Amino acid sequence: MALSDATRERLKGVSTATLSTALFKRGLRHQMIQGVLPLSPPGATSMVGEAFTLRTIPAREDLDGMAVLRDLANPQRRAIEECPPGAVMVIDSRKDARAASAGGILVTRLQVRGVAGIVTDGGFRDSAEIAALRIPSYHARPSAPISLALHHAVDANVPIGCGDAPVFPGDVVVGDADGVIVVPAHLADEIAAEAAEMTAYEDFVTEQVRGGQSIFGLYPPTDESNLARFEVWRKEKGR
Amino acid sequence: MALSDATRERLKGVSTATLSTALFKRGLRHQMIQGVLPLSPPGATSMVGEAFTLRTIPAREDLDGMAVLRDLANPQRRAIEECPPGAVMVIDSRKDARAASAGGILVTRLQVRGVAGIVTDGGFRDSAEIAALRIPSYHARPSAPISLALHHAVDANVPIGCGDAPVFPGDVVVGDADGVIVVPAHLADEIAAEAAEMTAYEDFVTEQVRGGQSIFGLYPPTDESNLARFEVWRKEKGR
Amino acid sequence: MALSDATRERLKGVSTATLSTALFKRGLRHQMIQGVLPLSPPGATSMVGEAFTLRTIPAREDLDGMAVLRDLANPQRRAIEECPPGAVMVIDSRKDARAASAGGILVTRLQVRGVAGIVTDGGFRDSAEIAALRIPSYHARPSAPISLALHHAVDANVPIGCGDAPVFPGDVVVGDADGVIVVPAHLADEIAAEAAEMTAYEDFVTEQVRGGQSIFGLYPPTDESNLARFEVWRKEKGR
Amino acid sequence: MALSDATRERLKGVSTATLSTALFKRGLRHQMIQGVLPLSPPGATSMVGEAFTLRTIPAREDLDGMAVLRDLANPQRRAIEECPPGAVMVIDSRKDARAASAGGILVTRLQVRGVAGIVTDGGFRDSAEIAALRIPSYHARPSAPISLALHHAVDANVPIGCGDAPVFPGDVVVGDADGVIVVPAHLADEIAAEAAEMTAYEDFVTEQVRGGQSIFGLYPPTDESNLARFEVWRKEKGR
Amino acid sequence: MALSDATRERLKGVSTATLSTALFKRGLRHQMIQGVLPLSPPGATSMVGEAFTLRTIPAREDLDGMAVLRDLANPQRRAIEECPPGAVMVIDSRKDARAASAGGILVTRLQVRGVAGIVTDGGFRDSAEIAALRIPSYHARPSAPISLALHHAVDANVPIGCGDAPVFPGDVVVGDADGVIVVPAHLADEIAAEAAEMTAYEDFVTEQVRGGQSIFGLYPPTDESNLARFEVWRKEKGR
Amino acid sequence: MALSDATRERLKGVSTATLSTALFKRGLRHQMIQGVLPLSPPGATSMVGEAFTLRTIPAREDLDGMAVLRDLANPQRRAIEECPPGAVMVIDSRKDARAASAGGILVTRLQVRGVAGIVTDGGFRDSAEIAALRIPSYHARPSAPISLALHHAVDANVPIGCGDAPVFPGDVVVGDADGVIVVPAHLADEIAAEAAEMTAYEDFVTEQVRGGQSIFGLYPPTDESNLARFEVWRKEKGR
After folding, report:
1. pLDDT at E16 over 90
2. What's the gap between Cα A210 and its chain centre?
3. Residues on chain D touching B155 (C-beta within 8 angstroms)
4. What ipTM was assigned to the predicted interfaces of this complex?
């Protein structure tokens, strides 16, 4: 189920907070990738893309020497070249940030290739360099040690865990200043539509609250007059 | 015991570090709320206000559905409307930042209502939006998931723990770039006065150290000539 | 084995990531001080200096009252005055950031004395003030409580652990935006030389990747034509 | 809603594992008190009783000296005398086992008073003595330091969190070798009845598996012939 | 590379401690599955078998309802029926023991099928029942909640991480009172032989130390006369 | 200040819980070694001895190969031969139990040499063998990996931290089923005397509570009639 352009655009305009509420309404409570933050302040729109996953296990010293990097079949290096443009690479680093999940050169390559973002529940090396790139990137903390010291890449595009969230290839990954959330692929269209509606109402509420209105009856709109005022507001704002 | 204007002003001019030392001298070693940081760089003065507390327990799925937000008796929503202007709302989130303690709309409402600040040992959603507000806010880390997923608000203005510190309603809460400290209500006046004195001496010391003086004899002032020079300095500076 | 000026300069131009790789090649996998970050964005060059260590154990209330600060023999205060210019002070705070390892006045004194940097696996108080100094500083997180509450300084310039890394006096300590790494003294010259070479190649690679080249064959250079092009590039760049 | 004798007896014969499954079917996923184990091997029946709660916050040195123990209004000491016979005392120790939640004398008093059990998400002192009592007791680990060092009891019989589970007074608390689970009061009867049925089938399954049958079709009973055989078995066993 | 009967027998007679030393000599430092212990006191011989792995990711509520257990293709249930006799089932539970990795019925089935042991870096439910079985079992702690609450089984017999150790299908897994270690398949024969030799010397040393000899020169045998005495001892003991 | 025979005998008869209370009365709140438990059930008397300390830092691969064990100057091996009979060896393993602090042969040697006990805030290998010895031993958990993998012994009989407690050589170390506590050397006599008195009263209280008396007025003895009855009891019991 491919991510449509319409849904991608809608998701760029909503927050992970709003998405988490929409998912919660459907009984999905564990879709947030816990403990990751953006390396640089997010831009005006959210990071959006389908998940392309990379799976690692703990390194084994006889397998994970420098030589492994020279092997074109190395799953980490292959993933960098194979992750589709527009996708988000999500790395299962087993929440271990003591060695790097990737570094500046690899993330630069992803940016050049048109990848939409990169997420690890470990850490990136060259973090200042990555922060200066345009590609959205999320990790737990900077981590200089070479990945081989702790991470053995095993395969790509299989279901993984990342930051205690389940991530299936093709799930829609959205990131903003609060972190990264995973929308199951089959729900992406309906969640995007609902979240866009919720966002309009939240923007209306924020404006009212700034103007001095109480949250009672407004958020949520238990006083229905607020819904009527919202409809007027939408027309005025063209939303 | 109400927080006097004089004490409030004094506390705005002292740091949590200095306050921790003044409390330490009285045998109080656990008043720092551990593990929380400001969402945005603090301004020129410290956050100061009496504690208005909110207590949560782990959520239970049958009690904590979306409907609970429509209930005017919901302790979280009531607390937002009832926290007094000038107070600091302190939320016991049981050090669990996997779901939000509050979000942008509620914190905006607190700002409009004149609340002095908000602190949780969990996390806030809409963290970029909150960081852009003028109200000081402190948390462990951003957290997008809806609060209902993990937090059940039970009551307000009761003694709580927050970040391993005891917080009684009416205690005086002070925050700066290092975090948040809790001054027991009955000590607020004397601690504020003592900390203001200490701050003057520390400012003097900093100036001397910048000028090349050794810390020996100066910090602490075991060489009494430094105290004499300090008195001269105070007069010059009008402090 | 003193740190030569040439090696110091070379190390200023390389990253902790590159150094970690050079150390990994020699079988050294645990030299990164885990979990520390700079208080302010690093400058154009890395922090470099020989380690001058300070060791702490948990505080004992009868030994660690305010009076201890008046004692010129207090190892913490002595270390501040004795750490050599050009050295990096490294504090073993047992990864406990619940009380401060040092504060603004002491770190200012280090800066005035020409010390190259300060690192703790605990936290600093007055963190905003320290962040505004020119001396590079690294910690786990801000921490206002007075050090006496948890830390008893026992001795200086002995081997310590810091952030799970072994640190021997005289080891060469290097810090950048990713954190801090410890280069064993006897390896400093050869590691610096090798890392400088690696950095030149990485800069070349980054430029090629920005220009659209795949990492295959380039990083690492399994396609030898890249090495030839690198030699041309070095001459052009004068590196 | 009082715990009936019939439900109490049924619950004595079922495991926390089976109860967790019955609760999971109703959407309740967080009722297990995480991280607590029995101090001594459980007996033939599970611990069962209605929750009588005790709430603590972090201690404050000026409030929590030895004198507080002489105060008959001290909530901890009162709770020991007021917890009803047949109830289970559940202590919110904020998952902090660095100081004791209670000790041998207090737990002995609970046993004499006919209390059904005691649970803390902290630790007990005098753990060997408590382990030798007949009253079921659960904690995270032994902890000798006096409770005053870290725990300030604030009130009893209010909703609390314990080991990340919500506990409301009157909820039914069940414990076995796997730990402790909390059944919401209004569900106790139906959960007990369902769990007793499930236990009968599980006992049948265990017997079949010991006899060599595959779990396929049997557990769960997707092959309905197993249900028929189960009915025969129940009659034979009188269950 | 199949595990030979000779190597299996040798490994039954050596400890995980001795194996860790033999692996350390070959540069392998991370083969111990950290944080797992046996549910019941180990017998006279170590658990030995080739790894048959099961991989899980975090559960997703819409995928992991009760219905999934009725699906014969469910990887967890299939693994129980497909794990070869003589093998050790090793489950990657992502070090999350808040829900069960398996329970009494499934482990009983493994025992009946002749499986050599079961290991998870999470927890088992029905822990008292499993402890009473003859099959060696290792986990982090008891955990009653149904596995579906947190664990989604994705595939079997792929490389996994377990307790921070890499585990490849066919690796030889050995367990004793200290926990579980993973011997890479291609090293099993030589490691077993070497460890058996080391064990003989350690047994000799233990006897000498019990008799009052210093460890100096004996352990390790820097005084060669000890090697000569060892040779005599071996002949006497027939080892 | 040597540990007198009288004090040693008194301490054998008191619990770590009672000692923690006596230390708390003197303002000492952090003397318990957190997180360690005995490898085997303690005997009738507590472990008592003066602290002989061993300090470790993180291992460095080039220094901590197998060869280091052949060096008679290795601080770990020397400590085993030099720890005085009657003392307790306390190892600062930096709370890292991922590799062993010591194993069966070394602990056997300590037992033969008459050492009173051994404590680490890491873990022991050969834990079943050590548990079967007569020497009291305490650790965080079993740990098979060779100590060289993580621990580099640097010196002996210096002040250390162990399990977040300060330990000075000569401090009196006491252990029972609850764990291990450190009594500062200069307080040992008075603490022992006071704790023995407290123990007598606690034994009296336990007997009264078993007989049905309320704790009110009895524990602590705010009703002075209990003190009178205690005096009678002491005479009867000869205590």
Report:
1. yes
2. 30
3. 158
4. 0.96
